UniProtKB/TrEMBL annotation:
Segments forming domain Acyl-CoA oxidase/dehydrogenase middle: 139-215
Residue ranges annotated for the Acyl-CoA dehydrogenase/oxidase N-terminal domain, each copy included: 24-88
Keyword rRNA processing: no
Domain Acyl-CoA dehydrogenase C-terminal: 249-374
Top-level division of the source organism's lineage: Bacteria
Gene Ontology MF annotations: acyl-CoA dehydrogenase activity; flavin adenine dinucleotide binding
Keywords carried by this UniProt record: Flavoprotein, Oxidoreductase
Matching InterPro entries: Acyl-CoA_DH_C, Acyl-CoA_Oxase/DH_mid-dom, Acyl-CoA_Oxase/DH_mid-dom_sf, AcylCo_DH-like_C, AcylCoA_DH/ox_N, AcylCoA_DH/ox_N_sf, AcylCoA_DH/oxidase_NM_dom_sf
Listed name of the protein: Acyl-CoA dehydrogenase
């Protein structure tokens, strides 16, 4: 079960990044304005070998690490945040398979074959309308002689209209329900995309609802069925490591967006002259007061990048202390990226809020990325609890 490539290495995939970023940036405004899915952008990511960066070497893939992944996603975020986020979730799926081989051999072989032919996007569908912490999923799997029939609604399904596979969390209808992940083909009968995504930003991400009405899933594509609260055999048994990958991957996208905003601002200031005749007859970009403000943006982004790029290799090495820090790191990185873009908008003045320029889109994309984040209070409560437990020891 392999996917042959001319040069299956992370370095080969990374070499194509600059051209891909330029292609994404050229179409990002159009897709944002029309809320259309960026099929061409995803195709460009695929053709560069970036969409399968984290396929394990034992499957013939590059075997990209988390450090490789954050490097790629930060660059894609500069081009189009929606494409970067959609790519991130597919990379996370392949990385999970590389670590734990949760997909059955035949199912993953099919995904790899599809990935050779064209973009094969994958995402986990977990969120539901009205989610309650600790509650069982409302999506139900009913057993019949041929496997399972899935019914329910999932929300915030990034890339929904273009997903080749969906890993759907559901509970069984057994007297003692079990929870598991059901692998569903995107073209399955009984599956419908409800175009509910109409957010401020990430408008091209097609994060619509997915409605399942007795969608058939073969028995061998039901993964990790366990009683609620059980550990060990569940696909989420390494939830901490999966969470660390997700935290840093999505942080990298946010910082990439902020870097794009910074680059636009610098070009903008370099073309503008002061309106005050008392100011020197030079561009705004040459003035010390703007250098100071740009330095503040640079400092924020350096801090976020050092945090992400420092933790990623440590997670790759399996350091427990690094795993425990990715949640707060995500929060800090996204806050830094958002603050940097807000400051860029302030420095640009009215043009920064004009739809003629991309700066306001960068801000909207960062604000809408919160749909993928843990609530701030949940991250901070966990960090505070861990600090108390650590420092309260005699």
């Amino acid at each position: 079960m392999t996917m042959p490539a001319a040069d299956p290495s992370p370095a080969a995939a990374l070499a194509g990044l600059p051209r891909v970023v330029d292609l994404l940036a050229a179409r990002a405004d159009e897709h944002d304005r029309d809320a259309t899915f960026p099929y061409q952008g995803i195709e460009a990511v695929h053709e560069a070998g970036l969409l399968t960066l984290t396929v394990a070497r034992r499957y013939g893939g590059p075997g990209g690490t988390l450090a490789d992944t954050v490097r790629v996603l930060a660059q894609l975020g500069r081009g189009d945040a929606s494409v970067a986020v959609v790519t991130a979730f597919t990379l996370l799926q392949h990385a999970e398979q590389a670590r734990r081989a949760t997909w059955p051999a035949a199912g993953y072989r099919r995904l790899l074959i599809e990935s050779r032919r064209g973009p094969a996007l994958v995402n986990t569908l977990h969120a539901e309308p009205g989610d309650r912490p600790g509650a069982l999923p409302d999506t139900v799997a009913r057993r019949d002689e041929d496997g399972w029939l899935l019914s329910g609604r999932k929300t915030y399904c990034t890339g929904a209209e273009a997903l080749a596979w969906m890993a759907v969390t559901a509970r069984t209808d057994e007297p003692e329900p079990r929870i598991g992940t059901f692998l569903v083909r995107g073209e399955s009968e009984g599956l419908e995309i409800d175009p509910t995504w109409d957010q401020l930003g990430l408008r091209a991400s097609a994060s619509h609802d997915v409605v399942l009405d007795r969608v058939r899933v073969p028995a061998d594509l039901a993964l990790g069925l366990t009683a609620p609260g059980a550990t060990g055999s569940s696909p989420g048994g390494d939830a901490e490591l999966s969470g660390a990958w997700r935290d840093l991957a999505l942080s990298a996208v946010a910082v990439g967006v902020a870097r794009a905003a910074q680059a636009w601002l610098i070009r903008f200031l370099d073309r503008r002259t002061p309106v005050d005749p008392a100011e020197p007859p030079a561009t705004l970009g040459t003035l010390a007061r703007h250098h100071c403000a740009l330095g503040e943006i640079e400092a924020r982004l350096i801090g976020a990048e050092e945090l992400i790029e420092g933790l990623a290799p440590r997670v790759d090495r399996g350091e427990p202390a690094a795993l425990a820090r990715t949640g707060p790191a995500h929060l800090l990185a996204v806050r830094a990226a958002t603050a940097a873009v807000e400051q860029a908008v302030s420095l640009a003045g009215s043009p920064g809020l004009s739809r003629r320029h991309p700066l306001e889109r960068y801000l909207r994309d960062l604000l809408s990325s919160r749909v993928h984040l843990m609530p701030d209070e949940a991250v901070l409560e966990a960090a505070g609890r861990a600090a108390v437990e650590r420092d309260a020891r005699p």
